[in-house]
User: Fold this.
Amino acid sequence: MKPYYQDSAVTIWHGDCQDILPTLGEAWAKAIVTDPPFFMPATTYPMISQPRGGTVEFHPRQWGDTNIMGTWFKHVLSACVPCLSLTGHFFTFCNTDSYAVFFPHVYSRFHFSQCLVWDKGRGGLGKVFLHAHELILMARWKTSEFSCDAKPTPDILRHSPTAPTQREHPVEKPEALLEAMIVPTCNAGDVVLDPFTGSGSTLLAAKRAGRKAVGVEVEERFCEIAARRCASEMDFGTANPTGQPPPRFGGGSVAPGCSTPNG
Ligand SMILES: C[S@@+](CC[C@H](N)C(=O)[O-])C[C@H]1O[C@@H](n2cnc3c(N)ncnc32)[C@H](O)[C@@H]1O
Assistant:
């Protein structure tokens, strides 16, 4: 099988992540940072109906309807988690409802979980309480390790959304936000996996931070966009003749096992 795109830092596979990931081996990713689609049944099925000539009927939401999504996510995790190193971290974007659906599956696969909040700084969709944040479900094992660049930061990540005029995907995530998850959990040269790549924002953020990245995307048009964006980012081998990625987060103390700037 041939990747759709490859450079010195990024590999993109075109296809369903549940088919591709089991072919890529085990324990090679230092972080999974992803943003899967949500398809909550209650927003898909009509809640009020009026049979012809009949009275209006109200169909309350059933939690059991979310089983479709829960089962799908469980299969996605079964494909993703074997790729993750036992020293790695897992991050998935969620909305309020999908957080509750994803949580039990993540809970049973990892030792610790944490809710991070992406604070967008300004309101978006809505009538009164405008949507100004998204949730990120983060999980780790007892054996997971932070990177040499990790430093204490709040669990609320403040980053402006990508401007609609600059987006190449309807729900594109800003690279700075993704970098804030990648840098503390992956050392330079470690590999980040995004099984729902979209326009490639995670891959681009990883490449810019001197990490490597593997993405999987089912729609070819998004593979094309992701490949173009990654290709336009200079390879760090070319940008810096030493082959060492540039330092991004100065001033922190050196964690055990991390080398000093002089090696
Ligand atoms: C929420 S978007 C990701 C957006 C991305 N974070 C960005 O910044 O552009 C989810 C992506 O997953 C892709 N997708 C959906 N099901 C998939 C699957 N089974 N395997 C791989 N990709 C899939 C969709 O085509 C969509 O582009």
